[in-house]
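Protocol step 4 of 6: structure prediction from sequence.
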Amino acid sequence: MINKYFVKILLIFVVILCLGCQAFEPIKQLQESSDPYHGSSYKSEFDKWTREARIYVGLDVKLIASATFKSSQFRDAYSTEYARIHRLTHAEKEKFVKDQRKAAAAYNDFVLAAYVPDKKWNDFSKKDSIWKIYLTVGKNKLLKPVEIRKIKKINAVTAHFFPFISPWKSVYLVRFPADDKTIVDGNALNIKLIITGVFGSAEMVWNKK
């Protein structure tokens, strides 16, 4: 009789153990997918081409700015990641890569996310903005942007590629011209993005070394 009871208890224990394994399996799957980039090179390239700068007046912060320089190297990683998450066909990926490289040859683009304590100061795209943005390459003169466009549509895809974006920041595309004399593409020794205004100046530097 004791053996029969022991067998029944053992069977119940095995069933509970199996059910427990099934119950915890989704959690295991969730842990495995916690990295949104799944081992791709995008995150390392994003970190390589992204900078942050701040302006303080005393202890008060007047500006927090993050910017990613969309160099050809960054755009290649961006294209690969975009093709992966959207499962583009080989032909679709080739076209996407071609378009990105064409843009890199035509412009020096930066994705800029800016926080200011007063929303009316976050006016980078306006002609009479309190801020000025410049680009210097090596020892060359200050370059002015040909376009500063506010990116109004921020969704999960945008946040995936530019994780410094938050509800408290406004996002802009800052575009500088690129030709034989001004194209930088990550090859210059000193690439500097300057944001300046009445509250002070902030500089973000990409140094090849």
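Step 5 (inspection) to follow. Confidence is low (pLDDT under 50) at residues 21-33.
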